Amino acid sequence: MDLKQQFEQAVSDSKHLSERPSNETLLQLYSLYKQSTEGDVNTPPPNPLDFVARAKYEAWERIKGKAKEEAMKEYINLMDKLQAYSS
Hints:
By secondary structure, this protein is mainly alpha-helical. 68% of the residues lie in helices and 0% in strands.
């Protein structure tokens, strides 16, 4: 499988984990997904009182500049670890 196919498989697998990852891990998955699919953060910051949206935005913003391919690889590696842990 090429990188894009592996990434798409990892995204699909993320919906079927036997245990819910921690909030920190979910934010990491979110930011890597957004960086992989959209590149650098490209929206204005959300309302500071919307804590969930703000956390997601900040997680994505922290990896600004990371190449899409690198973000895909990190997403795949993180999913491999999560699947091994939940097995």
